[in-house]
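Hey, I'm writing a tutorial for new members on how sequence and structure tokens pair up, and I'd like a real worked example in the thread rather than a made-up one. If someone can provide the structure for the chain below, I'll link this post from the tutorial.
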Amino acid sequence: MAERKPRILIVEDENKIASVLLDYLAQSGYDTHHLTRGDEVEPWLEHHPVDLVLLDLMLPGKNGMDICKALRQGAPGGPAPAIIMVTARVEEIDRLLGLELGADDYICKPFSPREVVARVRAVLRRGTHAVAVSAETPYGLKMDDAAWRATLDGQDLGLTAVEYQLLKVLSARPGRIFSREQLMDAMYQDERIVSDRTVDSHIKKLRRKIEDCMPGQDLIHSVYGLGYRFDPPPQPLTA
């Protein structure tokens, strides 16, 4: 049986840009669909699950930020897709990848179509590089690399791809201190340069999601001047 092509939804109101992206992504082996309005995205996704959404920031009907927030709160019709934001507003980048949205990546206009294809591949690779499901830890953390899904004491943490990768790296070596540079390498394998604040923002959001599942428990600790470490709870969460 032929392997299913990864599905990409392009949400872009400039048809010329969308046409180029459709061509390049199709030639690279992706199954693509194009929407021009932001208010079409969520209804369409209810019946057409995708692996990744290439999402313009400025759209008629509903802007990209509101769409990204809605998808992160709960994707209609299935697991949350990866999200790459496309923006000409460089000043919004910290928000795109930070606490407010949790996008997996961003691309600034103007861009090269080849760069877009490379970014799409990198983001999808983070979610599909492994097919095994790891064993559950004694304290109830389970990392499913095939689904890019983490559960804690049976509760889905609802992580983005970046947050998943951070938790996987930290939890694999409990007690070890990871520098921000080491965590950046884990988050972004395409060797881009990002600020320490970006790492801190993702860590803060990851902590918040863990807190939602485990009130009063702080599993990720900051070590002043060094970075972060993962400290599992001393006892199993379940009886």
